[in-house]
Predict the structure.
Amino acid sequence: MGVTINTLHRMDGCHDRHFGTVTRNGNTFDAVLVGPFDKLQELLNTETTAEYELNEVITVAINLPKDETVSGIYALADGQVAIDGTVDNETQIDEIVSLFDVDIGNGSDKLTVSTEDIQFRPEIGTRIRIIGKGLHIYPIFT
């Protein structure tokens, strides 16, 4: 399962960032869509695989009981989103900073977060729930 772009609007002053509404696994939310506008238009109303990023991480809960039924992306109040998934991979950048892929479940989509974003180093296989703002979606163009 991927993400479906429902609406798309140009963002003034940005050639590769645009605003839209998307649906993933039955949940609809607002996001910044990253890519050329014409390429994003080609994806309207079709399901596509994507990678995700947050501008701001507000809270993080880890070591939650495994429960794939709650894995996903959910719209919350005040433009916040909750992303629930499993830490899938670590890419170490240097001695302090690592990037972590969070498998969102119900598809091949991933959220990437850094130790700088979440302020700790989670274990691979750990369920994690991240609340944040400024969801950016990077569709995979084929």
Observations:
- Residues 37-42 form the longest helix (6 residues).
- The first strand starts at residue 3 and ends at 10.
- The CA atoms of residues 5 and 22 lie 4 Å apart.
- The mean pLDDT is 90.
